[in-house]
Amino acid sequence: MEKPCVGAPYMCVGWGVAELVTEILARLSSQGVGSTAASSTGYLLRARGFVESTGPNPRQIVVIPTGGLNIETTDDDLHRPTFQVQVRGSPDDSTGVEATVTAVAQALNWADSTNFAGLGRRYVEIQQQGDMIWLGPDANREPVYAQNFMAWRSRTT
Q: Which domains does the chain have, with CATH numbers?
């Protein structure tokens, strides 16, 4: 059995955590799940944490790195970083948030022979880990759900 990455969270040497978050956000944006534009009327894509909702649109999708598994010694030299996507919706709209978590999973869950490349790294597969998780409403009654993932990607650019 493999050991999880050793060290402080998000600090696994050589794993390119910042790049992972950027690449996942780019993938979600390219698949139309959300947008990085602050003026978006849909879901706003964010890195590592929600921004306090001050306007009429509290809907956000956040990508949070959670560590990963040790590098396998294979010819491909792949590593497997893990991350969580949290989705926060409008108050009293749990059904809409659940649909968005499903859309996130569909945008990220794939395995094909062409892969996809981000910032020079090759992604072989992104696997959904378990079912979506209800985290409950936040202080403003905005529903929050999460989904865990593991990526199989090249170690180097």
A: 17-49+56-154 (3.30.2000.10)
Distance of CA 82 to the CA centre of its chain: 9
**pLDDT, one tens digit for every residue, the chain (157 residues):** 333 444 333 344 445 778 888 889 988 998 899 998 877 778 999 998 887 765 667 889 999 999 877 655 555 677 788 999 999 998 878 899 999 999 999 998 765 545 566 656 778 888 899 999 999 998 888 999 999 999 888 766 5
Tell if the pTM clears 0.90, that is, is over it.
no
Q: Are 147 and 132 in contact (CB under 8 A)?
A: yes
CB atoms within 10 A of CB 107: 19
Between β-strands 60-69 and 44-47, what pairing exists: parallel, antiparallel or unpaired? parallel
What's the rounded Cα separation, in Å, for the pair 150 and 142?
Answer: 27
At 113, which helix (H) or strand (E)? strand 110-118
Gap between the Cα atoms of 20 and 81, Å rounded = 8
Secondary structure class of 106 (helix, strand, coil)? helix
